[in-house]
UniProtKB/TrEMBL annotation:
Protein name (database record): Hippocampus abundant transcript 1 protein, putative
Subcellular location: Membrane
UniProt keywords, alphabetically: Membrane, Transmembrane, Transmembrane helix
Source organism, top-level taxon: Eukaryota
Residue span of region Disordered: 497-517
Organism: Perkinsus marinus (strain ATCC 50983 / TXsc)
Domain Major facilitator superfamily (MFS) profile, first and last residues per copy: 299-517
Regions crossing the membrane: 70-92, 116-138, 150-170, 177-197, 217-237, 244-265, 336-356, 368-387, 393-414, 426-450, 462-480
Amino acid sequence: MSTVDLELKSHSVVVYKRQYVRGLSLFSSWTWADLPVTGRHRGYIFLIELTLLCSEDMPSARLGAPVPSPWLVCPSVLPVFWGIALVSPVLIEIKEEYFRRIGWCHSSSECNDVQLLWSVLTMSISALISCFTGLLVGAYSDSRGKRRTYFVLNSVLAVLPPLWLSLTALKTGVSHMIGYFVLEILISLAGVGPEYARFPLLNAYVVDCCPQPQRRMRIYGALMALTLSGNLVFPMIGAEIHTFAIVHLWALLCICSALYTIFALPESHPGARDRLMGARSRPRPFDWLHLPPRATIVLRTCLEVRLTIAVADSGISQSINSYLQSALGFTALQRALFAACIGISGLLCNTLLLRFLQNECEWKAQRILLLALLCYATHYLVCAVASSTDVALFGGTLAGPAMLGSSALAALIADYTPSAIVGTAMASNNSIAGIGSAIGPIIFGMLFVWTREHGEAERLPFAIASLIAILAGILVYYRLPKAIQIYCESTPGMEEMMPRERMLDDDQSSEDDEDNG
């Protein structure tokens, strides 16, 4: 082959790659006049392009399937969260009944303390196990380029606890309840627990399907809002339906989620932002351990914030129902109303407020995170001083804007983390939350039980949680800007990449406005 032919082939490949990245058709933006060739080479160039298009060894074959919509993951995860919201108001009564049957407690207050400590123990063990398995799953999903497999496994195992209770709900013995607690710990190997749900690759799935940073954050907020929408309806249903009947509906929701995930959920094509490299850009499972510190400085700072707030949030959320029942005399219906206030506030804040802060106020993720932490601190303080039902419900509404912190942290990690390890980064964020979910319930659960015996300091845990939220805000205010600056300076082309992604956001917003207009 002559030198001219080699140059011709190389030039053709480059033109083809550039054309594919732009997402246009093969011959839409250049003509044969653009190539420095004679007429006798035109047929040869066409054969080269046809070979590239059909070859499985070239990027075009792997990029034939379009990237799916990030919204397709919703039917896979939302029924699991909604099922948890459905059973949450009555799960305390279910546990108290069985602990009373086996003789571990006699009075209502004793049974409340026993079920609280038992729930805290099982949740902590499950969280500790799942935080390590989730990190491994994220690393291997980056390496293999597959996310869907884990969603399938996760959804199937999420069915087991409600299905176990549903099939054994009519029995009078307590062996099935003990088996339920054992099952709760075992299925945490997949990162899911019956009283909470963990999908560490959910945010990574969104990153794979959506390259625009601003739009990603809105999707995170919308997913959070859809999750919380279950708190508007399902806790009320759970408080009204018979205790055993509610378990059957919980199992049905999880079964529907598993069926959709197995038969309909598409693959997200990890690494879609680096299309030309394909499988060659995927790291080995533990390559992230050898990255330079500057490449992960923003990730590490976000994980510190996540751990700090997860300790307080998980500890309070796990014990707040027991606190409302003992301190303010909340019934199951009132606890469901409290959860509904949180759901309504979270639904509005993660949709309308988030869009307003981004579009009208032009707030970045860091400032939104600071607002969320301030609302966390205020939420805990209001619950601490609440002396009536109305004040407690108002404190519940303050938890809505506090939930913006989760979307802000996910957006920061997605924007300032190497794209090849985005699954590992998102899973590590979830794993850190798992560690906080293991530590927080133990500390605050024991603190609640101790303060209940000494009524003078019963509101102390809320004050401590508020101080922890303030500490996280100080960490964000002083350390995060410097970490972002170091990452941008150490990452080649980072300064040019962020303005280009903002242009993509503007284009996407203009397209949305044209569609709405």
